[in-house]
Design brief:
Two copies of one chain form a homodimer. The first copy, chain A, has about 325 residues and is of the alpha/beta class. Helix content of chain A is about 45%, strand content about 15%. In chain A, strand 3, helix 4 and strand 4 form a beta-alpha-beta unit.
Chain lengths: ~325, ~325
């Protein structure tokens, strides 16, 4: 797998632009005062399907010629990526097969069904997911859309940082959470091309700190059955993703579960926008390390806003 | 009391413009599809203090010369208006006295205190509030800022519809909730001046339908100890406000409590923005009467986003 070039990212942006929202960038006087610097929030919670995942999924799916889409697309995910693959497939006129663990929340099953995708349930283990996915590919000829470990996903997610820099070319820092690393690697890579003076910082729950540990040791390590309220980040960082992160990320900060909940509540209360726990990881990292951001311009990616409203942590 | 002129509204806008946020206008494909028409949301939940109330309060307070502000301002309210008077006074360098019932939620007491206002607690009755307010005026010389029954408040709240029409001059309808009628009358009045072809529609909880009954009978009637989740609308419409509403409002729709909760949840889930129950009243009226809005352009004022997150109705 090759690291995407600037040209790949630009072509991704052109390819997906009519299928995604150019999300607004918000500010909050309260947060600026708390930090002592300027903070800009790129609101991917207002993106289609409520998360940045629509960028990468659209980039893969739309990169196939119509005649190559006839067998549809398949992925295993119970989260935002599943919705993104379902919607992007629908828009492309293709069938989507989504493998989900039986115990996925009803609201996520409903969201995927609403986009017309076919759900296959499996045991809630990694092995069962992969097996179910392989079975569908064999039976249908569907093309797999990996949630993060794919240069086309990375190039697609990179368009978010690209838009950010187009509107705010003088950011000192950019912060995003890291899970599998599609957005994290994409953002760092985009900055390295279009704004190398902007430092990329990642935020990770201490409970799922495989990227932090890999970054510090220089050696890719995974994480087993992690538990965190940041349900979008419960995966180990991908190999290609980590290669890019190792090269282009400035620092990784870890945050605790209560800090994530507090940050989420703060944004809800003060900015009146709904962010999901995974996004709050980045906000918590900002607040926990605010000394670094005093007097600076910091761009923070609000990655998504999909939250189960009847199971809030407050 | 005189009905504000267009010139009054324009001067209000000039006067307050640097103290308020020119709030963004959002759209939602989901809502457009549900309605079968185009709906535009003016997001006053992103306004200072999280509600449109900042407009009217600023207009009154900033209309006094600095030397006339020395004794401060007083109001009785436990809601968004209290926060608006507190913040506008602070910005004006004046003292704010807020009369609140003892049983007001802690979060509202804290918000007002944060703006440096002095709180006087009283029994949770209308008489006690008025008496406490009068006492403060006598003792301090503070100027009262009524939450809705004042032409300067109406002119201030009218600036929201004015901004709306400046950006979307071809709205067929505008919808706002109605409580005391500051925003409702202000919006209807602004439309009558700057966009007389836009029909003003009000939304009211069935549980607090004094404006509806007044509108239908042509005679101002009040409401006693109303109960509704729409805590910003638990007051009877003002006399001057009703005069304007009677003249310039096209229709008033009533909605039930469950419809308010459902509409609130819908906006949270689909638009990822936090709206308070009073705003959801307008959304519920839109959805309940959607036939009227098919193929039309409708502007809806999201009045505020102040919600107690640990006491949600879902």
């Amino acid at each position: 797998m090759e690291i995407p070039s600037l040209s790949d990212i630009k072509r991704a942006h052109t390819r997906i632009t009519k299928y995604i929202v150019r999300t607004p960038i918000m500010t909050s006087q309260t947060i600026n005062e708390m930090v002592g610097g300027e903070v800009f929030f790129k609101c991917e919670n207002f993106q289609k399907v409520g998360a940045f995942k629509m960028r990468g999924a659209s980039n893969i799916i739309m990169s196939y010629r119509p005649e190559d889409r006839v067998n549809g697309f398949v992925t295993h995910s119970s989260g935002n990526h599943a919705q993104a693959v379902a919607l992007a497939s629908k828009v492309a006129g293709a069938k989507a097969y989504i493998v989900m663990p039986e115990n996925a929340p009803q609201v996520k099953k409903d969201a995927v069904k609403e986009y017309g995708a076919e759900i296959t349930f499996c045991e809630p283990t990694e092995e069962a997911r992969v097996a179910a996915c392989a079975k569908i590919m064999n039976e249908t000829g569907a093309i797999q859309v990996h949630p993060f470990h794919d240069p086309r996903i990375i190039a697609g997610q990179a368009t978010c940082a690209k838009e950010f820099i187009e509107e705010y070319p003088d950011l000192d820092f950019m912060i995003s959470p890291v899970g599998g690393g599609g957005l994290a690697a994409g953002s760092a890579l985009a900055l390295s091309y279009v704004s190398p003076t902007t430092k990329m910082i990642l935020a990770e729950p201490s409970n799922v700190d495989d990227t932090y540990r890999s970054f510090k040791s220089g050696k890719l390590v995974g994480v087993d059955s992690p538990e965190s309220i940041a349900d979008g980040l419960l995966v180990s960082v991908g190999k290609l993703n980590f290669e890019i992160i190792k090269e282009h990320v400035s620092e990784i900060y870890r945050v605790e579960e209560q800090e994530i909940v507090d940050a989420m509540r703060l944004i809800w209360e003060r900015m009146k926008v709904i962010i999901e726990p995974s996004s709050a990881v980045a906000v918590a990292a900002l607040l926990k390390n605010k000394k670094q951001f005093v007097g600076k311009k910091t761009g923070l990616i609000i990655t998504g806003g999909n939250v189960q409203l009847d199971a809030l942590p407050f």
